[in-house]
User: Which sequence fits this backbone?
């Protein structure tokens, strides 16, 4: 029983470390920006929106979760 708990703890530690590595890699590549929702489209199964960045650029991509939002916080990679 103790071996199983140790194995489970080791697995959880590895998963946690992988998330930390991913977060650090993203932090090096981009930054969080606040955007304004300029257009929303909604189907029965999902929603999408078009947003305007602070510099005036409009970003239209299939991002969901903006059904009732007027602003969305996005992680932007300047390299695309």
Assistant:
């Amino acid at each position: 029983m103790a071996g199983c708990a140790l194995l489970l703890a080791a697995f959880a530690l590895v998963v946690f470390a992988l998330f930390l590595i991913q977060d650090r890699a993203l932090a090096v590549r981009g930054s969080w920006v606040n955007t304004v929702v300029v257009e929303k489209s909604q189907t029965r199964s999902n929603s999408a929106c078009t947003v305007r960045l602070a510099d005036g650029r409009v970003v239209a991509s299939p991002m969901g979760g903006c059904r009732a939002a007027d602003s969305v916080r996005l992680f932007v990679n300047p390299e695309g």
